[in-house]
Amino acid sequence: MHALVVDHSEAGPVRFADVDEPVPSGGETLVEIRHIGLNFGELKYVRQWPDGAVHGHDAAGIVVRAASDGSGPPEGTRVALGLAPYAWAERVAVGTDWLGTVPEGVDLADAAALGVAGVTALRVLRTRSLLARDVLVTGAGGGVGRFAVQLAALAGARVTALVGSPERAAGLRELGADEILTDLDGTEGRFALVLDTVGGPLTARVWGSLAEGGTLHLVGTTSGEDTTFPSGALFGFGEPRTIATYGDLTPPGRELTDLLGLMAAGRLTAPVGLRGDWKDVTGAARALFDRKVRGKIVLDVA
Known about the structure:
Number of helices: 8
Helix content: 10-25%
Distance between the termini: 12 Å
């Protein structure tokens, strides 16, 4: 069968290859993949994975063989894979706790966009009550950012979206952003929670925008730059502010189910900014790196 595998050469980050058919274990479901969702990190930092390994974490498809131990969905069920290994192939054997059942009315391609981005946003925003609190989302024009804006608004937060340019702001008010900024002027000591996808110098600036007792969650480093805090910036009086890292790789089946339920109810939309064929994965990756896509990229598996 065909799959997208890690490519460490200059032609990378991925290439098509013929690979062996997966053989499910007792607790794994065999899924025929119909759509894959791309993420910045898995493509930008591809050398963290072995050359030639089947790549990708997010996809959606149809169960063609249920797990033999009786766990998971039956044959014919539409499912979404999130954070799962080896997801960018025509068929994938995957543990049942990495799956979410896609309800009627939810497009299978939209379900493929959830995975890493949607689950990351949900897990971070669930760490504290957001009702009537000020929340800042940096890199709000991207995949994680657009999910985070929607979910924070659903939780009752006053949501500020920070974007790199006015063009990246398109559609954010409709998703629930109360305010859209391209810089942090005038935001000192304001936010109870910041979800930062950008990193670099921006992280040091965002720290100054935290209110007493606030938390800065670091979920991405799309800038690729180092963060340096000025002398004294991490000292302060009053209720302590905190910096929290993020790297939760536990199976997301429950979160996927919650997110898909919100989509079925019309309360959450998949921010798909580019839809195409997986044969054009190189062009899609280039568009992602060049910041030409607002939201997620979903590719159809032929």
